[in-house]
Specification:
The chain is of the alpha/beta class. It has helices spanning 11-23, 30-42, 54-64, 82-89, 109-114, 135-145, 192-201, 210-214, 233-243, 246-264, 294-303, 319-322, 331-339, 351-372, and strands spanning 48-51, 72-76, 93-97, 120-126, 148-152, 168-172, 185-188, 284-287, 340-343. A seven-stranded mixed sheet has the order 1-7-6-5-4-2-3, sandwiched between helices. Strands 8-9 form a two-stranded antiparallel ribbon.
């Protein structure tokens, strides 16, 4: 089966994990610190805070900004549910905004502006599929309203994504991301005070770490209601190895995406985003023709050895959120989600793999057209 995504793991990763085990120190230590420094430097920042998931990072970012009950946070519905869940964890209310268009499936500034109220405290911008939201426009949006700007950068990892422009940016290292630590995340930002609050919050609000206490730096106090969101040395060791390969992998993703675009011309499917749109090419979303039976297309592709996926069911239509917002309609998001199909894209793929996917997709669409005729 040609998978939608697949981590690249090999001897380098095995050696890094064995070195951690041989050291007999597996909790937060020197490797976590090194990973934080090197990942921050890769993104032209001076410091970062490693955590055990992107979800944890989003939660900590919101908490560090003081988001809480009574506050509203603008979020896209076209995202993984964690984007909204992190807001709910803080007792605040996620306010869902529509996307700009089928061609530009990023949160609409105009729709976000229309949903602002006196209670709006922050906006979370998500770089869907790895394509960067407009830095200048969103920074201006937040500054004019005196609200915080968080980048959900789960899909946009690496120097290819350009500078950090949010008050905080949060990254994912889940197994299907451009680089992986198995489970893990990172928070970057230019404000040392905010990063210090995130760092304190990830470990129960404790004022000293296990390493510091081992080295005789005294006991600890707890100065806030923190969480257990720490990254292990094993995760960080994987991250250090993967980070060194990230630029090459992202370049490979870009080349494969370009080949998809060329081969899919005239196929009847639409590809979101302009060719020149800055991206880390995390996933390859396509829009099937209107009225296509996506489930049948996916089944035909699977029978031909090609896995597909769906990114994403709109968050506002998931049961837990639909019960709380039964009247909410986001027509462009819903139209996009009804037609979206995610095709395989990862650095292990070769050009013949892309050709196989495109052939299988064209056959599936042709079979469906015959059935409808």
């Amino acid at each position: 089966m040609l998978l939608v995504s697949e981590p690249v793991l090999g001897e380098d990763e095995k050696a890094a994990l064995c070195a951690v085990i041989d050291s007999n120190w597996i909790t937060m230590g020197s490797r976590v610190q090194a990973f934080e420094r090197e990942f921050a430097a890769e993104h032209a920042m001076s410091d970062g805070v490693a955590v055990n998931s992107c979800t944890a990072g989003l939660h900590l970012a919101l908490a560090a900004l003081g988001i809480g009950p009574g506050d509203e946070v603008l979020v896209p519905s076209l995202s993984f549910v964690a984007t909204a869940n992190a807001v709910a964890y803080c007792g605040a209310t996620p306010v869902f905004a529509d996307i700009s268009s089928l061609q530009l499936p990023l949160m609409s500034i105009a729709d976000a502006a229309a949903r602002c109220t006196a209670r709006t405290r922050a906006v979370i911008v998500m770089h869907y599929a790895g394509y960067l939201a407009d830095a200048e426009a969103w920074r201006k949006f937040a500054d004019e309203r005196g609200i915080f700007l968080i980048e959900d950068s789960a899909h946009a990892v690496g120097a290819a994504r350009s500078r950090i422009y949010g008050d905080l940016a949060v990254f994912s290292f889940f197994g299907n991301k451009n680089m992986t630590t198995g489970e893990g995340g990172m928070v970057l930002g230019g404000d040392a005070g905010l990063l210090a609050a995130v760092r304190l919050g990830r470990a129960h609000g404790m004022t000293t770490s296990t390493v510091q206490r081992l080295n005789g730096q005294g006991n600890y106090d707890v100065t806030m209601l923190g969480f257990n969101y720490r990254m292990t040395e094993l995760n960080a060791a994987l991250g250090l190895v993967q980070l060194g390969k990230l630029a090459g992998w992202n370049a490979r993703r870009k080349a494969l995406s370009g080949l998809y675009r060329r081969l899919l011309q005239g196929s009847g499917v639409d590809l979101p985003y302009a060719v020149e749109h800055l991206s880390t090419h995390h996933i390859l979303p396509v829009l099937l023709p209107v009225s296509t039976d996506r489930q049948q297309v996916a089944a035909t592709l699977r029978a031909g050895g090609v896995q597909t996926s769906f990114h994403y069911p709109p968050i506002h239509q998931l049961s837990w959120y639909r019960q709380r917002h039964p009247e909410l309609r986001l027509p462009v998001t819903e139209a996009f989600a009804a037609r979206e199909l995610t095709l395989p894209l990862h650095p292990k793929m070769e050009e013949p793999d892309v050709e196989q996917v495109v052939r299988a997709l064209c056959v599936a669409l042709a079979d469906q057209a015959v059935a409808l005729a």
